Amino acid sequence: MRKLIRSGNPVIWAKTVQLVLLAVITTAMLGAGQSRYEQLGHELVCSCGCGQILLECNHVSCPSSPVMIRELQAQLTSGLGDTAVVNWFESKYGATVLAAPIRGGFDNAAWIIPIGVFLLATAGTFLVVWIWKRRANSLVPAPAQLHPAGLQGPEESALRERIRRETEY
Amino acid sequence: MPVHPMPQFGSFSLLLALVLTAYNLIFGGVSLWGATAGGQRTTRIPEAAWNRLGETARRAGMASFAAMCCAAFALVWAAFTNDFSVEYVRAHSNIALNPAYKFAALWSGQEGSLLLWAFLLSAYGFVLRLRHRVDVRLSAFASTILAGIQLFFVLLLVVGAPPFSLHPGPVPQDGAGLNPLLQYPEMVMHPPMLYLGYVGFSVPFAFALGALMMRYPGEKWIHITRRWTMVTWLFLTVGIFMGAHWAYSVLGWGGYWGWDPVENASLMPWLTGTAFLHSVMMQEKRGMMKNWNVWLIFSTFLLTILGTLLTRSGVVSSVHAFAQSNIGSWFYSFILIAFAVCLFVFFFHRDHLKSENKLESLVSRESSFLFNNMILLAACFTVLWGTLFPVLSEYVQGSKVTVGAPFYNRVNIPIGLFLLFLTGIGPLLAWRSTSLRSIRRNFILPAIAIGVTAVVLMICGVRPWKDGNEMQSTLFSLVTFSLGAGVITGIVEEFLRGANVVRTQTGKNLLASALLLTRRNTRRYGGYIIHFGIVVMFIGIAGGAFNQSRETAMGYGDTLALGPYRMVCRSITQDSKAEYDTDYAVLDVYRGDKYITQLSPERRVYFAGTDHEQAATVVALHSTAQNDLYTVFEGKDPDTGQPIIKAFLNPLIAWIWIGVAIVVAGTFVALFPNLTRTAVRQRQEETAPAGASRAPAAVGAAGVLVKAPHA
After folding, report:
1. What CATH class does A31-97 carry?
2. Cβ neighbours of A43 in B, within 8 Å
3. What is the pLDDT of residue B281?
């Protein structure tokens, strides 16, 4: 297999990618439906104003969660798909019933911005470190710094103190 | 006209505190200006006269603490003596309330919690002013800045949210009582801890701003504020996790962190504060990142205020009681003023913040700190973004959305894992530059630990590809456990390497050598202990991927099986207490056929308040290192009247609390002063066995037992 891949044959590459994709999709589908109730119940929020995830809202005498849970079970048994169930709840209770912004449009910004900031910050840090490193390398150290052994008295003490300070945790 | 001495005393104390704080701010500021001008001989008044004026301002600041003590005492006294003429006491206490919770009434409402904030701020200020000799001029700047912050809070208490307002009309016979959810021992401790953390960040902020204003030479201000910052960070950490433990033990939804705006508000300054604690080391050691550090501490302080604004102004929806109030405009104004001051001072003095050194290598301790900072700030931004997104969405789309746990978990877990990775590699890198040989030597064992743990866990059944819908969370858990093993191996390796050197030098056993090693450099090894605690917490959090739950109506003798446990219902009882009616089920818990314990999940209805009945669940919990069996009395089946019991099996939760305890221990270690070399040598000579004295480094001149000046 490794030899075939190394040969660079596009057909083999495509087959390999297909195989991997098939494996991933099969893996993802195994067990799908096992906990649709749990999964969808955790994508919705109780509408009573407590702000808790539907299946986690258990405050005593909650007027909303038992009703919503029964509705969720009814929607699931009616054979609706996940998106249809979520849409049904959104149309009945409004967008605040969704535990996360997933409606597309501006909602996408909720997901894209933090990831974008994270990636930009990572790239920015690499860039800053690289620039600093280049600048530091371009500086020619003074001869005294190259030969600290030649220092004596207070200068040597100061240098030793600096080394201690800079190398200690 | 009825006389209410205690509320009047409290109001008078607040007014007195306001005057004293204003005096401290105005005359402290004038004296600092005058002393600078006097020193430069631009005024005729000698510098000494300005200093005397500054001394009166300092004393006024200290006296304001006494006035705030009186105000806080007046409110607590009113609660203890059931003085329902005070509207705040009527709304948050009642006659039957347990005395400990009457004390907690001080911070259970809007006005009381603001009073606690101002009181703690004055207490911090008192300590700062008392210890002014550590650096008189810098302390004077910091004291004046603190007085500015305190003035805002005291003014808010006097005008915007007065805690001693009288109840209109006749004095009620009883109060409305404390929210039953708050009647829990941890709730007596959690808010003060959190507030000590929030308020405490004002001190390093004041020092940083003061140092910048006076163009303080060198980095001594960092030494002065190091302990302040660490203690504050410790309070905030403990406060946050006490809140999490309270949520877990009381709210009864089986979790401990719900990403509510109030929780987020406490997490944001913790994240930036943690970043500051790391990056400030670069300034201390190498004179780098000065701009960055100044803005980190500015941001941390502003985030404590922003968090307060978000949760008290009604800007965002929260389950917490403070969410709706009319003091938002106060906080908006204060944040704007504080930000403007920070910006002005920064731009005016930014030339003073020039780095003394440049970063020399990508593979170095400095760059790991940079990445650590970047990750912590990215996490902070994500939390802030998620908290504010509903407001933005309403502005842009015209409809509010909910940003709940699914969003935060999906975005923050990868960030958290990257942070865990950096926690492992950062301490193993050298300052300035790390050689390839050093990398090989330091990272080989952690890398092996990561690989071995991953393989062993997969063999034991942690296989993400087999978990269907739970694939992602199982994968994250697998990565967390593996990385955690690597980080712990790295930490143990560092301890063992150092302890072996000490053992060679002193002839002590390995444990004693590790102890001596830690005492020689408490900051470094205390830091490792904190990292170890953080890893343990991560492991506890990762256990959440394997949570299970079941819910059923249980009659007498019915059984509910969950994981290795079997619960048998032994009785269903109703009872009536002084403050509440209760329903509870008694469940015998078995593991296999072995009896383990008895759990009694409970539902209470509090009727003591005069306003309305309040219901609450009381969780029954059996906690072990392996997992928690967590049971809740959900309600009653409307048809059969049987109790509905919901049981959760939460693996590894106990490790979160153990991790926090380790973090606390590590912080205490890091706060201890180092043993100096002379003291170590003396100890070695006193305690080392005769043979050990031949060890090369153990031979040295006897010294005196002294503490390091700037540990």
Report:
1. mainly alpha
2. 406
3. 85
